[in-house]
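Appendix B, record 7
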Amino acid sequence: MGLKEGTRVPRLVKVAGLIGLVGVAATGCTTDEVLRFGWPEGVTPQAEAMRNLWTWSVIAALAVGVLVWGLIFWSVAFHRKKKNDEELPRQFQYNLPLELIYTAIPFVLVVVLFYFTAVTQNTVMAKPAKPDQTVNVVSFQWNWEFNYPGHKTPDGQPVRTVGSSSEIPLLVVPVGERVEYHIRSTDVIHSFFVPEWHFKRDTFPYPEKNNQDNVFQNTIEREGSFVGRCAELCGTYHAMMNFEVRALSPDKFDRYMQLRTQVNPQTGQTYTAAEALGAMNCGELCTPHAVTGVPFNTDRTGGAPSGIGTNS
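Structure tokens (predicted):
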């Protein structure tokens, strides 16, 4: 009887290991995806900091789970009542050292996780002085305005992009430079969300009256087009309140801003975001609406942007 029990436990361990291996392989995930434990890939250092916190938190949770499962299976396998066994297993309910251990370990885990969470939060929310670029993000029913106070058009107004029912707004930023965003709403509460940044923040009509920190910074690490969304239910056309982030290399961004501050000879007006990107002729990255396509044909004019100038 004892020999059979001795061989049964290793066999169960092997079967469990095989099932786990097949389960991981059947997901079709790459090694990188497995190590990220489902966390999506980001494009900013802040997103990577959050990914590290997530990964190690999951590892800690799995370690605790394995320990707990091991103790449960150990108790089931070696301390169950056997036939003709009248003695109870050794009791531990009044073992003071053991009680201190299983009280101290969770406390240490909570303290460690709290520490690394606070460190990651400080990294994500850090706002060093003198960012490379500043963008004012204005939300309204049901679209977006992006204006750049550091770049002026010939009439002295900041370069400004406003979305409409015929054009999805483009937020163009440089790669490798620290960008500071000032966000607010002109009507109801919206939410500025770019999934690849792993960052979302609500926009309030009067952020200073809501004690809201409406400023954050980030650095995008690679060129690309990323869809942005409103993540706060804000009315009839909330689902259509999208925008695009276009991350360009510094030289392309400088060229883009140079065009945005000039008059388009074909229209007699300053270049719009779409016109400037089209004039740069740098492939799909400079194609307007490469990600989101043409907007839905809706009257997305429930609210109004900030009203600074008319350049779009």
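Remarks on this record: The beta strands are 133-140, 143-152, 158-162, 170-174, 178-185, 190-194, 199-203, 215-219, 224-230, 242-248. The radius of gyration is 28 Å.
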